[in-house]
Amino acid sequence: MELNKYKNIYFIGIGGSGMSALANYFVLENKMVSGYDKSTSVNTINLESKGVEIIYNDRLIELNKEYMNKNNTLIIYTPAIPSSLKILDYFISNDFVVIKRSEALGLIANSSFCVAIAGTHGKTTTTSILGHLLKYCNKSVTTFLGGISENYNSNLIANGKDICVVEADEFDKSFLTLKPNIACITSIDADHLDIYNNIDDLKDTFNLFINKIVPNGLLIVSEQLSLNGDKYGFNKDSKFNIQNIVLSNGSYSFDLCIGGKLYPNFNFNFPGKHNLSNALAALIIAFELNCTIKNLKRALHSFKGVQRRYSFHINNKDLVYIDDYAHHPEEISAIYDSLVESYPNENYLVAFQPHLYSRTRDFIEEFASVLSKFHTVLILDIYPARELPINGVNANWLLSKITSKVKKSVKLQDLDKEIYDCKMKINLTLGAGDIGSKAIKIKKQLLEYAI
């Protein structure tokens, strides 16, 4: 398919992280961009500020006639959109060219030197760090992110087209549209069991992704994975590793080892070994793309993070508030370990919004186990996203299995007051739903007291 032949691009589910990044890309390509989403968000507001027309009702009458010519309009949709959507059905029934987001991304990425970051956890942070490193080093690169980079206040980093860096999303097997020149796999844990039969099915699909790497391409994989490829991590036996790690005031200093050669004195301003591992993967790829060590040191030190990835809203000696997208037991565990490393001998409060009925059901025991490590747990109602309720799967079921000293079921609209009333020093909000929308209000409420 030739994307350049289309004058108009219409997005169904335009507000999603991946979809809005694509929409931003086509805006820069001077295409006419429009779309539908069920509700406004930071992403839709940003797009509207660039002249993108977005409708929020599934009514054909609201469709701009400009986008009803199937000869010059391409339709891109996200699998998270229900098939019953009238607008989607209209385009399909009238023989428009309708493709998934992953297919559109594949067409763009595969037309240049493709770098794909895969893994059930760590994709967004690794991709964001890499995109920033390459931009800082003035490489000709376009980076598609699954989150908003704090450095660029965008989920698209555009600095040329020779290299394309993308998140290789395993949901709906989307990453199988990619043909990477360089691929990274950060982790493989059971997830998306509404798509995959079991962990073995998921691993088999990751192997299919590996087989998509071009001949003589590079594959780097976390040392924790039993996959063929160049290993990276904290073990000196790994081809790429980090040594002499020192954590001070929430920031790491370390030495980078590549192929047995040590490059000292790197600095990274985000706590958590999982974040440090993501930084290592990004550094390796940037080094392979001929970025200099001097520039990589400066670029890594200047990385400001990703919105809702271990985002500090308050960080002082008396009060801490962190917001994160974590929605899987392994991700929550990694964040807990980071807290223990940075704030030992403290009690922690977590407010958690489960994401998807199926994920809550499939990992109920794992969620209960990791959340029980926190002193105080506030559980919100399950965020349904694309799912209908499952009988018996609810927040109270999860709460009943948690053994924390303090635990409570709370409503989203009351969350700021509930956290305030607990008077805890270390506070977290976690989840992939709309819990992040309360962060500003929670911060304001927390700052009204001093511990």
| Assembly form of the protein | single chain
Which shape, going by the Cα principal axes?
A: globular
How many structural units, i.e. domains?
3
Tell me the CATH topology of the largest domain. Answer: UDP-N-acetylmuramoyl-L-alanine:D-glutamate ligase
| Integer-rounded radius of gyration | 22 Å
Number of helices: 14
Report on this model:
This protein has about 450 residues and is α/β, with parallel strands linked by helices. It is about 30% helix and about 25% strand. The strands form three sheets. The protein has a ten-stranded mixed beta sheet with strand order 8-7-9-6-10-11-12-13-14-15, sandwiched between helices.
Highlighted features:
451 residues, alpha/beta, Rossmann fold, UDP-N-acetylmuramoyl-L-alanine:D-glutamate ligase, 31% helix
